[in-house]
Amino acid sequence: MLVTLIPLFDEEMSVRAYSLFAQKANFLLDPSMQGTRQNDGATQIAGLEIIENMGLDTLSADKEVFVEVNNISIFSDISGQCQAPHDRIVLLIDSTVTPEKMYVDRLCVLKGMGYKLAMRKLAVKNFETYRSILALCDYIMLDHKNIDISKAKIYFTKVYPRIRLCAENIENQEVFEKLKADGGYQFYEGEFYRVAVNKGETEVSPLKVNYIELLNMVNASDFELTKAADIIGQDTALVILLLKMVNRMSRNSEITSIRHAAAMLGQRELKKWINTAVANQLYADKPNEITRLSLLRAKFAENMAPLFEMNMQASELFLMGLFSVLDLILNRSMEEALQMVKVSKEISSALVEHKGVFAPVLDFIMQYENANWQEVSRLMLVKDIDMDKVYDAYVQSVKWYRDLFV
């Protein structure tokens, strides 16, 4: 199974929902599934299975989750597949669910059960034909790149005033700002939040400079544990995070000082914790999803190390993922940003030039988080990577991220 979460933002760049995209079978890795067997298990909704196995709060603490259903699985026992609250689940349908009576009746039943509905990939020419289905939908996903979204907004605002509009496929901040200025959209989705905007800033805030210095110190070939502890002691937020971490690890020990807490972690674990905690503080003035993206990439990259036969480089892969959004944080090019955090040549080559030994891992992660399953499948085939191990690596990353903030 393959699974990823894609955020939906509001106008303030706060995440309000997630779309959960999953693929249970991999035709490229298992050609025997093509042909007559391709619809086996079609009534099982992969997204609901994941929610049931992981728990809705692990994926999204208090937000709706959009889950794909098709023209077959829509007739399955949906509530039996997942015990999550119905009002937190948005069933995401497309034009394969046609405006025939059997589909309309089924959607009415699902609405009556408390589920919400969203329509995606609907061509403009079918807007009128799909009136009976659109009248039941809570959301309509409008692809900014494929349709005239401004005209679509006028149409839906007039004909379906209660439906919420979601602008999809937004490629950069400029487009996001324009759509936001136009108004009328509840959610925004796309790569825009991951695209750096160079604001021409020449100075980095003093607080960020201190964090960068701490990162550079612990990522040197060797560092003094006591010196790191003393620097941590100068930042209240880091002290609180450190004490929470140590208390979770050893509930029966009495912490007498910051140095004592650091010593309990040890040099290796302290280094890993500092990279994670400092990055979280470094990104504090950015949308929460940037922090989440950075940390998930870091842990996912580390977890993928054995699958790429890079066990010995797991810690470097962690840093690569962690710093993969550093250009967003410092508002400058990736090359300039990395000059401030003395990373290895291998990490720099992957993040700046997309070359070198770590580049394939970064490319895999980027394709995966975009739910580009065809390319992910190809890469798994080329690298002889087991799909279940990829799934486990991602799920463990999501759980790790959740536990960081418990």
Automatic annotation (TrEMBL):
Database matches in Pfam families: HDOD
Domain HDOD intervals: 204-389
Name the UniProt record assigns to this protein: HDOD domain-containing protein
